[in-house]
Queue: 2 jobs
Job 1
Amino acid sequence: DAGVTQSPTHLIKTRGQQVTLRCSPKSGHDTVSWYQQALGQGPQFIFQYYEEEERQRGNFPDRFSGHQFPNYSSELNVNALLLGDSALYLCASSLEAFREKLFFGSGTQLSVL
Amino acid sequence: GQNIDQPTEMTATEGAIVQINCTYQTSGFNGLFWYQQHAGEAPTFLSYNVLDGLEEKGRFSSFLSRSKGYSYLLLKELQMKDSASYLCAVRDTGDDMRFGAGTRLTVKP
């Protein structure tokens, strides 16, 4: 049973570019959450998707957008990249009925130069 | 808003017991979680408390006092592999989970 998978594992971009990160949830999970984790910090909530809609959003600008597909996989898009967007981006999946436990992917390390 | 505070770093000796504290302030409360994160890896779930009291799971236990906005994670019989960051997280009445900055635990021989 595959866990949460994210791609790519590492990415280097320059300021102003756009990036798309991808996540496949754990088998059977229907809810996907995205987090940004800066070095030495805890994960910061970006948004959560359920039934292909953004259900809740953290304190992130509109440059951060996402999508969930009918197969529950998800994408995170970041436009007009800033140096401060450099971080580990974590995807976590859960089952709507058992939301107390999140399963995290290994993340995408994004470096903005 | 939501504040979650935990110590930045702790050091303990192999075989000993360590307690990692977490205090929080939330507008609502729907559960407190502890996650373990080794360097360069994904966070992994350790425990979940929604009612006051102690939850024991092997060498790890977690305690919650909702009236005090306080939790702790207790690690017994420390092993070198327990060296990691320990993240306290709170779910309020919404659907998201908010994390503290994490406590980096170093276990020494």
Job 2
Amino acid sequence: DAGITQSPRHKVTETGTPVTLRCHQTENHRYMYWYRQDPGHGLRLIHYSYGVKDTDKGEVSDGYSVSRSKTEDFLLTLESATSSQTSVYFCAISDYRQGGADTQYFGPGTRLTVL
Amino acid sequence: AQSVTQPDIHITVSEGASLELRCNYSYGATPYLFWYVQSPGQGLQLLLKYFSGDTLVQGIKGFEAEFKRSQSSFNLRKPSVHWSDAAEYFCAVGSSGYALNFGKGTSLLVTP
């Protein structure tokens, strides 16, 4: 258990509304990631963070923004949700240490439905 | 660019039979390789990983995988499958501090 929680676990919203998903970790890891999982696509990276206020885009970042104001929380925001953003969202942390190999551990996921 | 291919979308095996799930990768440097398992409605659980050294790695739940550089493969194996192994399996490749590249997954069905 890597001490990762995601909230909410399930959400149904309407097209055009803003949505924020939260990822919380308890182990002070520097690297955090947001992925989305869709049938036939595996997991694809949306955004990641390599420290407080340090973030970068991933493969499928359009329509998403992120923020990390403290080490333990990484927020994913859909400014104006669309039906194509219906998906399962996973947060991950990396146990990366300088000069070492790292392993990613995943949260339980958030199932988002945009009507 | 990194990429991972899992050639089999679905695999069906009988309980007690052996299992091999295939994973091929494309990566410019020495890759870090992972297998994750996902049960329905659950998150991803790490089965095993390869960073360096012995090319045969042991994981949890009786799984093992073998890294073959010459074939760019990292196949997952289990000698005797249990009904509880039915799940989706993902192979992933990455390097330190960077996001993982995932295959599209192999769905395993176990029949009595």
